[in-house]
Amino acid sequence: MRAKIYFVCTGLLLASSYVVADGPTTTKDDPVRSAELFKEATKTFRHPRCLNCHPAGSRPTQGDDMHPHVMNIVRGPKDHGAVALQCMACHGNANNENSGVPGAPKWAVAPKSMAWVGLNDRQLCEALKDKKKNHGMSPEKLIEHNGKDELVGWAWHPGAGRTPAPGTQEEFGKLVAEWVATGAHCPK
Ligand code: HEC
Ligand code: HEC
């Protein structure tokens, strides 16, 4: 089997993107490679477009500086906002180019069990794999969710004035798939 070649962090590429080579997915357990792939994926998991919806506290955050959401918006009892002021009152199914309010289907703040802010690489990796924290997602579901989910996908077309997540969602999906295929190992 031919080893796949990754071009990670080379000066030849735009600093903000990564490239995963095409071809059949390797299924060989490889703890070192796997942990490296996860580290590469943290560039996306830790991107402000993702973290703003995966906060540790009671409020979503905004902007590249991740300041608390304006207007005192809170996660509320079910992560969809306060009872009287739900996220969807302002956020539609798509970005609103006129008002600048971003949108995607099922807009909500990620549950506290999926809070990523403040976790180191290993903790983030373990949390993502933990079925008690990730709503019972198998590794295959995790690949699907990261590579195809529309709410996750918003991060790559976040609307005018916002920095998109690195690369494309498809590339990110492949990166996560490779991490799983090499054993879904976590960095030390
Ligand atoms: C608008 C808010 C929002 C944004 C932006 C967002 N997420 Fe999420 N995320 C959620 C919500 C809500 C859930 C819970 C979904 C569910 O359980 O059905 C979630 C769950 C997840 C999960 C499930 C597993 C777990 O343990 O956390 C993953 C993986 C995930 N998001 C990845 C991402 C990535 C990667 C990005 C950025 C590229 C991102 N999300 C951006 C709101 C968001
Ligand atoms: C009263 C209206 C309103 C409500 C309710 C609301 N938002 Fe927002 N939200 C906005 C506006 C306006 C912006 C754009 C602000 C800007 O870019 O200057 C925004 C931006 C955001 C962003 C973009 C952050 C980024 O990456 O820069 C996220 C994430 C977000 N809101 C999450 C939520 C979540 C989750 C809820 C529900 C818990 C929610 N919002 C409820 C009005 C609202």
SSE topology:
Blueprint: E1 6-7, E2 19-20, H1 31-45, H2 48-51, E3 61-62, E4 67-68, E5 81-82, E6 85-86, H3 121-129, H4 139-148, H5 150-153, H6 169-181
Antiparallel strand pairs: 1-2, 3-4, 5-6
Helix pairs in contact: 1-6, 4-6
Residues 44-45, 49-50, 53-54, 107-108, 110-111, 114, 127-128, 133-135, 137, 142, 145-146, 151-152, 154-155, 165 line the site of one heme C.
Low-confidence stretches: 1-19
| SSE class | mainly alpha
Determine Rg (CA atoms, Å).
17 Å
Indicate the overall shape: globular
What profile does the largest beta sheet have? 2 strands, antiparallel
Task: Give a verbal description of the structure.
With 188 residues, this protein is mostly helical. It has one domain. The chain contains six helices and six strands. The strands form three sheets. A two-stranded antiparallel sheet has the order 1-2. A hairpin with a 4-residue loop joins strand 3 and strand 4. The longest helix is centred in the first third of the chain and has 15 residues. The protein is globular. Bound molecules: heme C (2 copies). The site of one heme C has 23 residues, from helix 2.
Question: Could you give a quick summary of the protein structure above?
Answer:
The protein is mainly α and 188 residues long. It has one domain.
Features:
188 residues, mainly alpha, two-stranded antiparallel sheet, 29% helix, globular, disordered N terminus, binds heme C
